[in-house]
Write a structure and sequence with these properties.
The structure holds 2 protein chains of 2 kinds. Chain A is of the alpha/beta class. Chain A is built from 12 helices and 16 strands. Chain A has helices spanning 2-18, 129-134, 183-186, 194-207, 220-230, 242-255, 271-276, 302-308, 328-337, 342-347, 351-356, 402-410; strands at 23-31, 38-47, 50-55, 64-67, 72-75, 77-82, 138-143, 154-162, 176-180, 234-239, 258-263, 281-283, 313-315, 373-376, 387-392, 395-396. In chain A, the strands form 2 sheets. In chain A, strands 1, 2, 3, 4, 5, 14, 15 and 16 form an 8-stranded mixed beta sheet that branches. The longest helix of chain A has 17 residues, at 2-18. Chain B folds into 2 domains: 31-89 and 405-463, Urease, subunit C, domain 1 (Roll); 91-404, TIM Barrel. Helix content of chain B is 27%, strand content 20%. The chains are: A alpha/beta, B alpha/beta.
Chain lengths: 414, 463
């Protein structure tokens, strides 16, 4: 109820903003990440926060003109599976909210599986970490709860956040349940990955009404949450080993879930099955070393091979994903350097993650889409190119962050 | 080799402090025989700030013979067409934990931090160094030819680092860079006080950290006095009348920990100091002055840009990341212009380091980012200048600048041929020569070394 009230109040703020500015970006190299492909020397008209027109020699008398001078214009970038707005300083527990871990308290608190845990309630749109990423072209991210020591293999629910500093709610159609499998989660399941299916199976039986004597895994709210996902909801499985990916696919099929694979270090080894089942994969293209015994198949060609096989690929960083979200486009560039077509590299941080997580309003430059845009100094996947202007919902974002303020204070005097 | 052993034997017989050049666990690295190589018509970034277009590079007998236009070599067995390609010195990473935290990251591979006491200068990273780490192969494919392997940062004084040539090997001695001085790893800030403070033992605070360093160096000074007194007595005894001089003075017992700190105080062991905050770095510079040693480089130094002039004035390098920040309070003020601002100070010494099995594979991209952000901030940094951050400046910080780090005649032929401008995400090291021998060729699978640990586990080898 309270949440609905907040949404209504916010709605007024948003509509006020939506009327703010009409912008005509002229003469850009427009990477639409859509059927239109890349359009040189093209204009994009932004009105009421959306893309109103794309074409040559557009005119709009009321518009503020931005001369792109041939520079690349892309959709706003995806930040990956992150804790942006949920984690300010990683090592400071009081600034971190992305994992429910009562077992890590002293004394440890008992917990079963809590799929109802929803990290949206912790999201702080004013986090100082967000402007740092926005100034680098990141406009949306998937907030992902973690399965951490003291918690369970079901991390809880997350969703897409729009990083305009104002939007509070996660995109409703993006809601997803996060489940960790494999050796990374074995310590949460009695030190065997086999127990992961034992626990998930019991949770499903409880949800479907089986009555148990004694201890239950799920609360009433947990069963209600699970029921939603068992009706075809999106479940993100963190899983790396090829055989574990196969088992996750089979489990999802059997139980009517809509799976997304995250991590997927060995996903290329089961690419044809992923493609056939139309299951998308989020990988970190830089992972080419075996961090553990689930990752011996690690290769820089993972993304390229998945894409070649017809799998929908998106990217997400494996380490310090929130502070380093801006590095995601560098990982995309590396995927391209290792065989992924350039267009697919850009799609993996724009259109593909939007599609994977149920956002139809972003990730492409097309008429009617949100005007989440980035104007770049050069090739957006190269490390020497920088974001020059970022728009979210048609609003030009401030390119100031605590980092640019520090830069300007300590800039060397000539 | 026999001569070296004889020298050590003499030193031990006299019980004199063991000098860096005579340390035990000697290098067994040998320069392999290689045929002369002529790289033609490439863009060459020398490593000293110069760039030569359409230049040739001639390697022979493990050394760089010449760099210039229209070189001729009748005996060059391998001619490399360098058109469209860039040639740089082999990259050098001053901060790696490959081998001491080998992958796969199993508990048995946690060999980097001797977290049993806050000061452990007696431990040597090389004694933890497992050459069977696929990270070395991945780093080589990224153009890294030398690196310093350091202990971790849990301790105030973590132990000695070792510099290696990035060649496939079964023993670390076969990688050890001949003649390179040891490093001494020291750490400021949050890590030591968290590790020990959480156990209720010292240090628990930054002031506890500093008291810990001071106590260690006071002990080292005392140790050196005892060594000096003994040496004086020995000299007096040897020059005294044989009938009247009595018993030969007894040498004080060698203390592994204090021996390392004495080496640092004498300048034979180079101090590499993990330190994030500007104020803490300034405190460490005062500590160095108090005891008369030199800090060679601050590592990580996310706030180095705040004291760039002070670092330059003191001749201390900043070995830095391009963009890491925010993972703890002392990393909160990290900015992407850090490397460029440290570099911009007069006589500034900026180094791109990795501290990461991923980062070491693409130090060139890290440098490219630092260059781009520096230029946006109004600096004018060129690739030929920025390449110094991962070659010459790194070599200087490791005490090996007379041997590697630039493509100058007479230096060791550690050379990378890139498929294009290395300051790009798309650039790849195509050929990597170490002492003139081709150790990695992206177009020749037979050079793609696979670590033993990967056998039977990895389905397919990719560079």
């Amino acid at each position: 109820m309270m949440r609905r009230a907040i949404t209504l109040a916010l709605g007024c703020v948003l509509s006020a903003h939506a009327l703010a500015e009409t912008v005509l970006i002229r003469g850009a190299r427009v990477h639409t990440v859509d059927a239109a492909g890349t359009l040189d020397d093209t204009d994009v008209l932004v009105r009421d926060g959306k893309i109103a027109q794309i074409g040559k020699a557009l005119a709009a008398p009321e518009a503020r003109i931005v001369e792109a001078k041939g520079r690349p214009l892309t959709p706003g970038l995806f930040g990956g599976l992150t804790a942006l707005g949920l984690e300010d300083v990683s090592a400071e527990v009081g600034t971190v909210d992305h994992a429910y871990t009562p077992g890590a308290l002293a004394p440890p608190q008992p917990m079963g599986l809590r799929p109802e845990f929803d990290i949206g309630y912790a999201y702080n749109p004013a986090s100082m970490v967000i402007p740092v990423q926005v100034a680098e072209g990141i406009t949306f991210t998937m907030l992902a709860p973690s399965a951490a020591p003291g918690g369970s293999l079901i991390g809880g629910q997350g969703g897409l956040a729009t990083l305009d500093g104002r939007s509070i709610d996660l995109l409703p159609t993006s809601k997803s349940l996060f489940v960790a499998l494999g050796s990374g989660a074995a310590a949460l399941t009695g030190n065997s990955r086999a127990a992961q299916y034992m626990l998930l199976d019991q949770a499903i039986r409880e949800t479907r009404g089986a009555l148990f004597e004694g201890e239950r895994l799920l609360t009433v709210a947990g069963r209600e949450t699970m029921a939603k996902y068992l009706a075809g909801g999106r479940v993100v499985f963190y899983v790396d080993r090829a055989i574990d990916i196969r088992r996750a696919l089979a489990f999802a099929k059997k139980n009517g879930l809509k799976p997304v694979i995250a991590g997927g270090v060995e996903a290329w080894q089961v690419a044809s099955e992923l493609a056939a089942a139309k299951v998308p994969v989020l990988v970190d293209p830089l992972v080419n070393l075996p961090g553990n015994f689930d990752q011996f198949g690690a290769t820089l060609e993972n993304a390229a091979r998945l894409q070649q096989a017809g799998v929908t690929v998106a990217f997400s960083m494996s380490g310090d994903a929130s502070h380093m979200a801006r590095k995601l486009r560098q990982t995309a560039g590396n995927a391209v350097a290792n065989g992924l077509p350039w267009d697919a590299g850009l799609a993996a941080i724009t259109a593909n993650p939007a599609t994977i997580f149920g956002a139809t309003d972003r990730g492409r430059i097309a008429v009617g889409q949100r005007a989440d845009l980035v104007l770049w100094s050069g090739d957006p996947l190269d490390v020497t190119s920088l974001a020059e202007q970022v728009w979210i919902g048609g609003d030009a974002q401030s390119m100031v962050s605590r980092q640019t303020l520090l830069r300007d204070r300590y800039r060397p005097q000539p | 080799m026999r001569l070296l052993h004889a020298t050590i034997a003499v030193a031990i017989a006299l019980s004199l402090p063991v000098r860096a050049a005579e340390t035990p666990y000697p290098s067994t690295y040998e320069v392999p025989a290689s045929a002369p190589v002529l790289i033609r018509d490439a863009t060459v970034l020398i490593g000293n700030g110069e760039r030569i277009d359409e230049a040739d590079v001639l390697l022979r007998d493990g050394r760089i013979v010449a760099v210039g236009q229209d070189l001729a070599s009748a005996d060059a067995a391998r001619i490399v067409d360098g058109r469209g390609k860039f040639v740089t010195p082999g990259l050098i990473d001053v901060h790696s934990h490959l081998g001491v935290y080998a992958v796969p990251a199993m508990t048995a591979h946690n060999d980097g931090n001797e977290m049993t006491a806050p000061t452990t200068p007696g431990v040597w990273a090389e004694h933890s160094l497992n050459p069977n780490d696929p990270g070395f192969d991945a780093a080589r494919a990224g153009g890294v030819t030398s690196m310093q392997i350091l202990p971790g940062s849990a301790n105030l004084i973590g132990g000695r680092g070792v510099t290696v040539k990035n060649v496939p090997a079964t023993t670390y001695q076969a990688m050890k860079f001949p003649g390179a001085p040891h490093g001494l790893k020291m750490a400021c800030g949050e890590n030591p006080k968290r590790v020990y403070g959480s156990k209720g033992t010292a240090p628990m605070t930054n002031m506890g950290n500093v008291a810990g360093y001071r106590k260690a160096f006071i002990d080292a000074q005392d140790y050196m006095r005892q060594q000096d007194e003994y040496t004086k007595k020995l000299i007096a005894w040897e020059s005294a009348d044989k009938d009247e001089r009595g018993d030969r003075p007894t040498a004080p017992k060698t203390d592994l920990a204090l021996d390392t700190l004495a080496g640092a105080l004498r300048g034979e062991i180079l101090v590499h100091n993990h330190c994030y905050r500007a104020d803490e770095m300034a405190t460490m510079l005062d500590l160095a002055d108090e005891f008369g040693f030199k800090i060679t480089a601050f590592h990580h130094g996310v706030e180095a840009y705040k004291i760039a002039d002070l670092l330059a004035e003191k001749g201390v390098c900043g070995a830095l990341w391009a963009d890491w920040w925010g993972f703890k309070m002392e990393a909160l003020d990290g900015i992407q212009e850090n490397i460029a601002f440290v570099d911009a100070a007069k006589n500034g010494c900026a180094i791109v380091h990795s501290d990461s099995g991923e980062g070491i594979q693409r130090l060139n991209q890290e440098a490219a980012k630092a260059m781009a952000y520096g230029n946006r901030a109004g600096l004018d940094i060129t690739p030929e200048h920025a390449i110094r951050w991962l070659t010459a400046n790194a070599a200087k910080a490791l005490g090996i600048a007379d041997q590697v780090g630039t493509l100058e005649a007479g230096k060791q032929a550690d050379v990378v041929v890139w498929n294009g401008n290395p300051f790009s995400v798309y650039a790849k090291a195509e050929q990597v020569y170490i002492d003139g021998a081709l150790r990695f060729d992206r177009n020749d699978r037979s050079t793609w070394h696979q670590a033993d640990v990967m056998f039977g586990m990895q389905k397919e080898v990719t560079p």
